Amino acid sequence: MELLDEEVESILYIAREISVYKIPHLKANEGHRANDWGDLAQPLWKGRLRIVEKSSGAALMFEDAQTGELFARAPYDALKPCVESVLDSSRYFVIRVEDTGKKAYIGMGFAERTDSFDFNVALQDYTKRMKAALSPPSPDEETPSPHIPVGPKKDYSLKEGQTFSISIPGKTSKLPTPGTNLLGSSTQSHGNSGGGVPLLPPPPSSGRKK
To answer: How much is the pLDDT for 175?
Structure first.
């Protein structure tokens, strides 16, 4: 029965090894820089990082890789994130940790950029789910059908004085007046040997920055 009473937890992310650093106080109107943390090869602590989700919310758990002993815990609020990226690297972050009501800021670094990328993706997915749960769509809001084209309606009715002919097999069709098309405008060439409506060129392709 005790096992049934335990709260179920989901593991959103695991990093086998991360480094923790003591960071200086943030200067006014400036962001954090990992280059200001001293020798990055000499961290304050090394261990694993898990993002754990329970019914009460998610948290970043800094644990010993061998024993699982908790080093620090950072509750993650999707509306007030406890994670901040540094300005000079994609592998280092500043984390706000909490312990019995007290808050502190530590630096965190990944050995590989792929680990930091997966870390960001896990937090983004969780944030998206939480914001969707907090602001569900209203049932009164009308969702347009995907089968109905969006945009202003086009007027295909004939204007005054415009005519068109229908070709019936076995009967001679009445040809339209030379020099006029369906819309009644002139199709005579104005310096264009084709005599038809000139086609617009395709839009230029957007160049991608390399």
So the answer is: 53
pLDDT at 71: 96
Q: Mapping DSSP to helix (H, G, I), strand (E, B) and coil, where does residue 200 land? A: coil
Q: Which residues pair with 92 in a beta bridge?
A: 109
Both tokens of 22, joined, read 């003591």
Q: Which segments of 124-177 are extended strands (E)?
A: none
Residue stretches of the chain with pLDDT short of 50:
1, 180-183, 187, 189-191, 193, 197, 199-203, 210
The verdict on pTM exceeding 0.85 is no
So what's the pLDDT on residue 8? 87
Identify the three-state secondary structure at position 16: strand
Q: Rounded to whole angstroms, what are the CA distances from 9 to 42, 68, 84, 169?
A: 33, 16, 25, 75
120 Cβ contact partners less than 8 Å away, ≥ 6 residues apart: none
Beta carbons of 110 and 90 less than 8 angstroms apart: no
Half-sphere exposure (Cβ direction) of 61: Cα atoms closer than 13 Å: 20
Radius of gyration of the chain (CA): 33
Q: How far is CA 193 from the centre of its chain?
A: 51
From its phi and psi, is residue 200 left (phi > 0), alpha (psi between -120 and 50) or beta?
A: beta
